[in-house]
Amino acid sequence: MNLAPPSTLRALSAADQARLMDIAEEVSFPQGARLFEEGGHADRFWIVRTGTVTLDLRVPGRRAAVIETLGHHQLVGWSWLYAPYAWHLGAEATTPVRAHQFDAAAVRALCRRDPAFGQHIAEWVGGIVAHRLHAARTRLLDLYAPYGSGNPW
């Protein structure tokens, strides 16, 4: 693995990227399209080619809180890798989006057939989960805590 930010495809080696891209399907979403809803079945994921996607979290009694905005080469969706395969966030195209779409079952099968590849995918996605957990915590504190998250940025 290299030192690219964990949320980008470039965090994987060139060989792992190529293996993953071999099973990609090109898709597009218009602005405002919901890619998935929190709690829904996570059976696919995307890597953004162009455009932006926001991740949001339902907050009881309030509008959904935008947690993060994703763009070029970034992974949209990680819940497909971990049972029970249910989305932990929601996602919406904030601009027209072109993306590579991946069938989750096919990628999990590839990971089982090649444990080294599976380990790289698990490390990549695990890094993204850790990053998004921190982003969600910080964003919710900024929105709803009396003193915010305390982060100076």
TrEMBL record:
<dbReference type="InterPro" id="IPR014710">
    <property type="entry name" value="RmlC-like_jellyroll"/>
</dbReference>
<dbReference type="InterPro" id="IPR000595">
    <property type="entry name" value="cNMP-bd_dom"/>
</dbReference>
<dbReference type="GO" id="GO:0005829">
    <property type="term" value="C:cytosol"/>
</dbReference>
<dbReference type="Pfam" id="PF00027">
    <property type="entry name" value="cNMP_binding"/>
</dbReference>
<protein>
    <recommendedName>
        <fullName>Cyclic nucleotide-binding domain-containing protein</fullName>
    </recommendedName>
</protein>
<feature type="domain" description="Cyclic nucleotide-binding">
    <location>
        <begin position="8"/>
        <end position="77"/>
    </location>
</feature>
<dbReference type="GO" id="GO:0003700">
    <property type="term" value="F:DNA-binding transcription factor activity"/>
</dbReference>
<dbReference type="InterPro" id="IPR050397">
    <property type="entry name" value="Env_Response_Regulators"/>
</dbReference>
<dbReference type="InterPro" id="IPR018490">
    <property type="entry name" value="cNMP-bd_dom_sf"/>
</dbReference>
